[in-house]
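Follow-up to my earlier ticket, as requested here are the two runs.
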Amino acid sequence: MSTTIKTTSKNYFTRIQKYLTNKRVFFTPSINNEVYTLTIFDLSSSQTTSLIQKLTKHFHLSPKQQPELFALAA
């Protein structure tokens, strides 16, 4: 399972990289068109959930909510 964290802030990108390195989490950083991406590998679903909760609390972030899809009534 992999998890992707994207940001347009170089500062957050650097800080999150340091955080993940300190937590000894395997990740791959990349930069494309001024979008900074960190892809986290080899974590179970529960480990990923726990890590994201700790990360958002540590950096005082709020998780991006996925838009809910509504089926159109026929």
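Run two:
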Amino acid sequence: MTINTKMRFPIIFFLLLTSAYTCFSQGMVSIQHTMHTPHGNVPYDNYLVIPDNNFNMRGKSRPNSMTYDFRVVLKNDSTFSSKAKINVKDIKHHTILIKGKKEKITFSPSETKSVTRITMEGVKIPGVPTDSCWLFRTYTGKINVYSFLAELGTEYAIAIQDGVDGPIRALTKENLLEIVEYDNPKVHELIEEGSFIEAIKLYNKKK
């Protein structure tokens, strides 16, 4: 079948638009990493397509962020600590609102190098900026879990990491199966059932 030349551009445009909409609706985020080479450091973006069911809290209404003590490091290396909350109303554009004595300042993830919540017990919950949200490491182990809120635990988990040096990847069946060892059938059974967090916790218990 041949396609009329005049029809090619509309068709190509439609396919690109459809592809972009699919990724955007699933919650695509990118994280900038640095590759160390003999010729210097090379920055690159690692893209995560967060499945809709994870990014939308598996059908639950999205929670509001509490006000916490945050340490914010901006792109220009300016550092400050303040009580703040994360605005998560817009799923694709999270922001942090800092209330000063005379004005309010809003920061987006792209304007920061890192955001860390400091709990009352002094525990640090580091946040990695993506292009649309911060990913906070809220559960640590052989597999680390990242959430879009700075809440310890796995309730808001959307991404995972194999160890401390592995790339941060979306919490999906495929990504989990690539990480876990094949000599633990119970872990694989949980993953196949869709019980990802239970599988991660069981895997992390193994020495």
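The only thing I checked on run two: The chain has five helices and twelve strands. Let me know what else you need.
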